[in-house]
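Quick review question:
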């Protein structure tokens, strides 16, 4: 079949699947402290519905999957879904983004089901600052999860750190040193306007160039990795001494929209062509009301056809998405 190519010539082979909008921590830049407004459980796609959607998407050229949330490990029996997806012919890669709080207890089952790649969200190695950011004292559990996952053999493991100005400057260098010691790539993510409380302002973004300067001064020179995947969201650098590498997701200062190859399925069955999209395509209705595989495929194609050139964060035209990050899927 014809591959998923949008009107700007971008080929799409990467699907991000949110399995829940619920989370067991409360990062201030993502969720309110009080109970968030979650989707009713009956609106959340079943594993069978997700599997069917992926089987259709594979016929259109989807080859890579990333499981997200909320926090995906709060979804009961998640390894069963991983096993279903890993068995679909055509799927070449499955990864998961997690906050790591429940990772230690589920890592072996996930590995046995076929999961190999992990991104663990961790902004700091300081327990007090972790509590301040997440409003939960779960730092030891996250570190245990990373330890267990490494011992089991997951790889690569990457750490995602959100860079909020005037908050995490003291964490940038220690995280990189931790990554160098443990063979883990640290990915610094510029703070994006996806919070549920309207806290984002451009002057709260710790910029990639600033972080690069900090790492160069405190650890040593870096060089951009040649021949990297241009469609990957992160720009990757390695330390010139040959020990370790870091990545930067510079959505604000250096948007990578022109190379985007991703579409997103929310936990309640909405298809999105961009993290910042304002419009969505309902596929839950098709999955539950007798829609054919051809109808689902047509919905996917139309969603990709509608994809815009980019999110325009740096222009007056930018409109924040009506959903917060935990509801969209990380």
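Suggested answer, residue by residue:
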């Amino acid at each position: 079949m014809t591959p998923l190519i949008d009107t700007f010539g971008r080929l799409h082979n990467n699907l991000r699947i949110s399995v829940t909008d619920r989370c067991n921590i409360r990062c201030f830049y993502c969720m309110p402290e009080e109970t968030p407004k979650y989707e009713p459980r009956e609106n959340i796609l079943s594993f069978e519905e997700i599997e069917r959607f992926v089987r259709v998407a594979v016929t259109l050229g989807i080859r890579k999957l990333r499981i997200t949330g909320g926090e995906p490990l709060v979804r009961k029996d998640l390894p069963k879904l991983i096993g279903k997806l890993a068995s679909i012919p055509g799927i070449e890669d499955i990864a998961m983004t997690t906050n790591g709080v429940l990772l230690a207890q589920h890592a072996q089952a996930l590995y046995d089901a076929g999961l190999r790649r992990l991104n663990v969200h961790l902004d700091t190695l300081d327990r007090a600052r972790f509590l301040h950011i997440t409003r939960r004292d779960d730092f030891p559990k996250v570190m245990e999860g990373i330890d267990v996952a490494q011992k089991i053999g997951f790889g690569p493991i990457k750490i995602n750190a959100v860079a909020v100005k005037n908050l995490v400057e003291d964490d940038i260098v220690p995280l990189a040193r931790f990554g160098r010691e443990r063979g883990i790539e640290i990915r610094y993510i510029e703070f994006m306007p996806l919070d549920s409380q309207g806290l984002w302002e451009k002057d709260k973004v710790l910029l990639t160039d600033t972080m690069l300067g900090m790492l160069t001064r405190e650890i040593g020179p870096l060089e951009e990795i040649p021949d990297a995947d241009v469609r990957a969201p992160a720009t990757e650098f390695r330390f010139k001494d040959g020990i370790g590498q870091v990545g930067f997701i510079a959505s604000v200062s250096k948007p990578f929209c022109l190379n985007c190859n991703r579409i997103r399925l929310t936990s309640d069955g909405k298809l999105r062509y961009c993290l910042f999209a304002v419009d969505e395509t309902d596929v839950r209705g098709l999955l539950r009301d007798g829609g054919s595989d051809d109808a689902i495929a047509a919905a996917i194609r139309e969603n990709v056809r509608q994809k815009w050139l980019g999110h325009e964060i740096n222009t007056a035209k930018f409109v924040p998405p009506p959903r917060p990050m935990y509801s969209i899927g990380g």
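Why it works: The CA atoms of residues 111 and 154 lie 7 Å apart. The longest strand covers residues 157-163.
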